[in-house]
Amino acid sequence: VVQTPYIPPRIWTYQVGRLRECLEDYLAHRDQVEACYQFCLDAYAHNYGSLQAALTSKPIQSHRPFRDSPFRNPGVKSGVKYHGRFAATAARYGVDGLLRRWIECPSDCEDLELLQLSSYLTLIQYAGIAYIATFTLQRIEEATSLRTDCLLHEVDEKYGRIAIIRGDTTKTAPEDDARWPTTPSVQVAVDAASSVSRLRMLCAAANPAIGTTADDQANPYLFDRAFEPWAATSGHSYSVRKKPVSFQ
User: Fold this and answer.
1) Nearest to residue 204, comparing CAs of 238, 233, 232?
2) Alpha-carbon dihedral 194, 198, 204, 210, rounded to 10 degrees
3) DSSP code of 147?
4) DSSP alpha helices (H): ranges in 29-139?
5) pLDDT tens, 35-69?
6) CA separation for the pair 152, 180 (Å, rounded)
């Protein structure tokens, strides 16, 4: 009947707990995810000749590395190598359970697809941004414009070490060096989202169509698109920001 002018504590506590659970689960498997992602990139680079070719060439069905071989002696002439279904690779790197836990997929995950790895990485970026915004009350456009160096710490004579989020603001007058006091617990969000951003920057930097600058490569956005060669959005410009889904 009446709109509540604040997030009820029960709901706020629940959402913070779920977001943190998701982020901590990623960080606990960070090495496995990063290794699996790099293996997938290398597989595409091998079949196309280079990562840039994999990112810029028209998709070739026979060059997809994660499939059962349609030929008796694959790669004899073309050099193309097949690794079977992606589910086997996910299991080998120990990330199949992680994907099954956080991304909708078949119960046995035998049909786990490579796109679900990208969906999971996007989820981590969303969770990171949502977690940070929960403690800074930033607008969604501000939170999604943060970069990997956004977390600072300042020392106050009275309160000691204070965590600060630095970024662009859209309030009143545009400001590219605004500050939001926050909690040190946002470190998990920054670490997890930064890991994903740096993985995706490997692809963005290798694709001339993305147009990343040296500054972008050194300090990427915490929230961006899936630039992987198997992703449908791999050709979008880095300067054109992806519109986020609603916080709800």
Assistant:
1) 238
2) 30
3) B
4) 30-48, 51-56, 86-92, 96-102, 114-136
5) 999 999 999 999 999 999 999 989 888 899 998 87
6) 10
* Residue 135 CB partners (closer than 8 Å, separation 6+): 182, 183, 185, 186
Is residue 16 within 8 A of residue 191, CB to CB? The reply is no
Main-chain dihedrals φ then ψ at residue 54, nearest 5 degrees: -65, -30
CB atoms within 10 A of CB 5: 5
Q: Give per-residue pLDDT as tens, 98-145.
A: 999 999 875 555 688 999 999 999 999 999 999 999 999 898 889 999
- Which tokens go with 16? 């913070």
Which residues pair with residue 166 across a beta bridge?
Answer: 179
* Identity at 87, one-letter amino acid code: A
Supply 59's token pair: 């998709």
Residue listed under structure tokens 């009275």: 158
**DSSP code for 168:** E
In the structure encoding, which two tokens stand for residue 139, read together?
Answer: 């607008």
